[in-house]
């Protein structure tokens, strides 16, 4: 992370930003650091129980969360054990908690085997024992345990269709809960009679803990009928076994108020709002006004880009609703309805649509990236946009509109050298967008 303000901007009275790209990247790095497990988890660790502590969990941040638990656990090390599953490449070394890597966003056998072993670990616990569940975004596919009567291939087919459909994360996780043997609170029931404490890093707009990783330890208010409604809404073709499972009600989840969850606790460790507030504070410390538009923006990435472009244009031309220079910050999770065959990612799609909407508007720069370091399923976190992006694309014979129509934001920004590549950050509070109007 950059630390010298003088490297980023000239004196504020001159309204000059010396290096807009460096400033935007500094804000992104600050946001990610603010929601890292090493920063946010230690203060929320529970006291050790009288009995054993078994750590389980799933998500892109699960390994880093487990590492932080080990580093700060105040109980006897020999009474701490467990297993967490994270995405390939997102592991971290631990001594007593095993880390398994599996596939995301479509589940694989490694995730299925890890889920089965996790269930075995929590069997036979008593009321003096504690199950510490570490949950973050990505856990829905990583904790792969098909409901009875369903196969892993059934779940893979549904996941692929959901990812291409344009459904939002709440809708996708509603379906996933009702096809699982562990999600929607069922994992907590496997831990009885041990007490369950769940530590969460939210990748969900609105931060509903029951939606993060499809809520494996929390009761679920949605129903099989709701899951069927999502399937019908998006015209998703599902395997016959899946439809029969939902129509029969066999996939129903335990509901809020269920006494079996009494005494359990969940703690939200990190959210998109915390990341945005950290970035806003950093911008202000560097002498640039910052305004958080929202931490929970959803919708088609290209439509969200049009709204952001309109706000940036109003500031650039009329100093409304805020005076320039300033930076606009937003978070949440956009969606992409896939119609082309390009290499996409919702943040790259957002930026490509933003470039077309701004059409080279002077002094407007932008960054959009996923805080987990992976934009969709590609190897980049996101990308950067400058006033000359379209001009440089034209000079390189890159047709921006054609790339957008083909859902090929990755290919577009890669050709321009404007991708942001961080590698796995081992946290995940979803999208981070910053638009600098200088």
Q: Tags for this entry?
A:
alpha/beta; 438 residues; six-stranded mixed β-sheet; six-stranded parallel β-sheet; glycerate kinase, domain 1; disordered N terminus; 16 helices; 12 strands; Rossmann fold
The secondary structure category is alpha/beta
Across the major sheet, the strand order is: 3-2-1-4-5-6
Number of domains in the coordinates? Answer: 2
Give the C-level CATH assignment of the largest domain.
Answer: Alpha Beta
Query: Average pLDDT value?
Result: 95
List the helices and strands in order: HHEHEEHEHHHHEHHEHEHEHEEHHHEE
Q: Give the biggest beta sheet.
A: 6 strands, parallel
Helical fraction:
25-40%
Q: Give the helix tally.
A: 16
What gap, in angstroms, lies between the N and C termini? 21 Å
Question: In one word, what is the shape?
Answer: globular
Q: Based on the structure given, which CATH architecture of the largest domain is correct?
A: 3-Layer(aba) Sandwich
**Unreliable residue runs:** 1-7, 9-15
In terms of DSSP E residues, the strand content is: 15-25%
């Amino acid at each position: 992370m950059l630390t010298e303000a003088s490297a980023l901007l000239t004196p504020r009275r001159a309204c000059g930003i010396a290096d807009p790209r460096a400033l935007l990247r500094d804000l992104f790095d600050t946001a990610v650091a603010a929601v890292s497990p090493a920063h946010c988890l230690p203060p929320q660790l529970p006291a050790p129980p009288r009995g054993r502590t078994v750590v389980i969990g799933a998500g892109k941040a699960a390994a880093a969360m487990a590492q932080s638990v080990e580093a700060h656990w105040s109980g006897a090390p020999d009474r701490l054990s467990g297993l967490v599953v994270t995405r390939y490449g997102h592991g971290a070394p631990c001594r007593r908690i095993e880390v398994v890597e599996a596939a995301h966003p479509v589940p694989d056998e490694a995730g299925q085997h890890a889920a089965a072993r996790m269930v075995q670990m929590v069997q036979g616990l008593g009321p003096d024992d504690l199950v510490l569940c570490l949950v973050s975004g990505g856990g829905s596919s990583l904790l792969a345990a098909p409901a009875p009567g369903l196969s892993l291939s059934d779940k893979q087919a549904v996941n692929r269709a959901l990812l291409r459909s344009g459904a939002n994360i709440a809708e996708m996780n509603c379906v996933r809960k009702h096809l699982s043997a562990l999600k929607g609170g069922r994992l907590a029931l496997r831990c009885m009679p041990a007490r369950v404490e769940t530590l969460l890093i939210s990748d969900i707009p609105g931060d509903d803990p029951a939606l993060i990783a499809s809520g494996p330890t929390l009761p679920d208010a949605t129903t099989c009928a709701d899951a069927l409604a999502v399937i019908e809404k998006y015209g998703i073709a599902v395997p016959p076994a899946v439809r029969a499972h939902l129509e029969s009600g066999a996939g129903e989840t335990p509901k809020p108020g269920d006494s079996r969850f009494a005494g359990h606790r969940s703690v939200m460790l990190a959210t998109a709002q915390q990341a945005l507030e950290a970035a806003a504070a950093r911008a202000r410390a560097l002498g640039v006004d910052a305004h958080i538009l929202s931490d929970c923006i959803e919708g088609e990435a290209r439509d969200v880009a049009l709204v952001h472009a309109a706000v940036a244009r109003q500031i650039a031309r009329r100093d409304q609703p805020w005076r320039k220079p300033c930076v606009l910050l937003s978070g949440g999770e956009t969606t992409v309805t896939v119609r082309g065959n390009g290499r996409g990612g919702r943040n790259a799609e957002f930026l490509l649509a933003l470039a077309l909407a701004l059409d080279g508007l002077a002094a407007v720069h932008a960054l959009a990236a996923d805080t987990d370091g992976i934009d969709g399923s590609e190897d980049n976190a996101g990308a950067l946009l400058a006033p000359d992006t379209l001009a440089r694309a034209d000079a390189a014979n890159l047709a921006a509109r054609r790339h957008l129509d083909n859902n090929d934001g990755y290919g577009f920004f890669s050709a321009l050298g404007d991708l942001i590549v961080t590698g796995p950050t081992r946290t995940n509070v979803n999208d981070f967008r910053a638009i600098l109007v200088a």
